[in-house]
Amino acid sequence: MDSQSQHLIDHNYIQNFKEEINVSNHIVDHDYALPVIMSVSDNDDKDVPDDVIVEKPKNYRILPGIQRNTKIYVDNLGYKYYKKKLLVNTITLICERQRSPSRPICYGTASISIDISDNHISIRNPHNHEPPVIDLNVPLLRNALTERGLDPTITTMSVRSIYNNEIIWHQEAAKNYTYTQTKARVKRMRRLRKLKC
């Protein structure tokens, strides 16, 4: 008998598995007594098991998007959203994974007030994944580098000089956004600007 089979027998998983199949047609992997942290909407509290710690986002911040003149919304838990539609008093947001075909889709949605002084966020549909680990300083550095790289008053300044000047103000982000990335981005943006003229 291999060690995995012995492990299942020692912890009585096989018996538990048979009971679970008969009762509810689902499999219980492990029965750890550790709490699970998940994000749910206000209406879902009644459906959450007692051992789950519910953490709801309370506020958000707006950061520059990857595309110039776009915005991303990041809640205090680290989930990223894009604006879907503008209603009378609210803006509907969708999880970033709805626009990312390379990752499993998430139908998470939220809403915010059109009043930018009210940074409260309400989850309408919960996410089906953990929040990504992101450096919130990188969008600020990327945006600053793009604007400086496209500034017509400093076109004689090299991209290296622009990068060196900006990382003084964004030291944390410089760890995750390199000169090579900056050079490629500024070159692409300058080329696009010439095509529009």
Query: What's the Cα radius of gyration?
Result: 24 Å
Taking strands numbered 1, 2, ... along the chain, how are they ordered across the largest sheet?
Answer: 3-4-5-6-7-8
SS strand fraction:
15-25%
**What proportion of the residues is helical, as a percent range?**
25-40%
Overall mean pLDDT stands at 75
Distance between the termini: 73 Å
Shape: elongated
Number of strands: 8
In DSSP terms (H or I, runs of 4 or more residues), the helix count works out at 6
Query: How would you classify the quaternary structure?
Result: single chain
Structural class by SSE content? alpha+beta
* Secondary-structure element pattern, one letter each: HHEEEEEEEEHHHH
Spans of at least 5 consecutive residues whose pLDDT stays below 50 are 13-46, 48-53
The largest β sheet comes out as:
6 strands, antiparallel
Describe this entry's structure for a reader.
With about 200 residues, the chain is of the alpha+beta class. The chain has helices at about 5-10, 15-25, 140-150, 160-170, 170-175, 180-195; strands at about 35-40, 50-55, 60-65, 70-75, 80-85, 90-95, 110-115, 120-125. The protein is built from 6 helices and 8 strands.
Structure at a glance:
By secondary structure, this protein is of the alpha+beta class. 34% of the residues lie in helices and 20% in strands. Strand 7 (109-113) and strand 8 form a beta hairpin.
Looking at this protein, list some descriptive labels.
single chain; 197 residues; alpha+beta; 6-stranded antiparallel sheet; 6 helices; 34% helix; elongated
